[in-house]
Amino acid sequence: MANVAVLNMDGQQVGDIELSDAIFGVEVKEHLIHSAVVLHLANRRQGTQSTKTRAEVRGGGRKPWRQKGTGRARQGSIRSPQWTGGGVVFAPKPRDYSFKVNRKEKQMALKCALTTRVNDKKFVVLEDLVLNEIKTKSMVNVLSSLKLKKALIVTDGTSSKNVMLSANNIPGIKTSAVNNLNVYDVLKYDTFVVTKEALQKIEEVYA
C-alpha cells in the first residue's frame, strides 16, 4: 500500500494515510483511460447542429438559363452547392455522439487515472477543508498555502458548500463531489486534492 502525507489547510503535514491498492495501486491500462475520456467528451456534445441540403433550401425550382447557347456553364438550379445561398454538400444533421462503455471498464478507467496521480506524486490528502463563509479570498489563501495552481478538489459533497462556491471564480481550480468523479477531470488538472472524508467515500464506493 502507498503511504501519502496528510496535510492541514496551512500546508503542514499532520500525519500520513495508507491508500487502498484496489483503487490507487492498480495496473494502468491506457486503452481504458482513452475510452473513458473519449466517452466523456462525446457525451458533452449536444449534437444539435443542422444545415440545409439542396433539397431543403428555398427556391431554385426553375433552371436559371437554357442548357446550350449562352456561353456559360450549364446549371440546373440556383440552389446547387456551388451557388451563394445554395445547399450544403453532406450537411451536418442532428445526431447522438454517445457510445457504450461497460460499467466495469469505466470503474477500472477511473482507478487507473487515480493510480497515475499517486504514481506521479500529484495526490494530496487534506485532513479537513472547511470555510466558515463563502469567500474567494479565503480559498485563495488555502490554495496558496498548499502551493496549488491547477487542481481538482474532491470533497464529500455534504458539508462543503462554502468551499465549492468560494472556488467557483478561481481559474484552474475545480471542485467535485465524490459521486461526480470522472476520468477526464482527474487527468485534466495537475493535482488531485481530496479530503480524508472524501477519500473514505471513494474507497467505499469504488472498492
Key features?
single chain, 207 residues, 6-stranded mixed beta sheet, elongated
Overview of the structural elements:
With 207 residues, the protein is α/β, with parallel strands linked by helices. The protein contains 7 helices and 6 strands. The protein has helices at residues 21-24, 30-44, 103-119, 136-146, 161-166, 183-188, 196-206, and strands spanning 3-7, 13-18, 123-126, 151-155, 173-177, 191-195. A 6-stranded mixed beta sheet has the order 2-1-3-6-4-5. Helix 5 (161-166) links the parallel strand 4 and strand 5. Helix 2 packs across helix 3. The mean pLDDT is 92.
Taking pLDDT < 50 over at least 5 consecutive residues as the criterion, the unreliable ranges are none
Given the helix and strand composition, which structural class is it?
alpha/beta
Number of helices: 7
Distance between the termini: 14 Å
* Overall pLDDT confidence: 92
The largest sheet is: 6 strands, mixed
- Fraction of residues in β-strands: 5-15%
Number of strands: 6
Shape assignment: elongated
Helix content: 25-40%
Q: How big is the Rg?
A: 27 Å
Name the strands of the widest sheet in spatial order: 2-1-3-6-4-5
Order of helices and strands: EEHHHEHEHEHEH
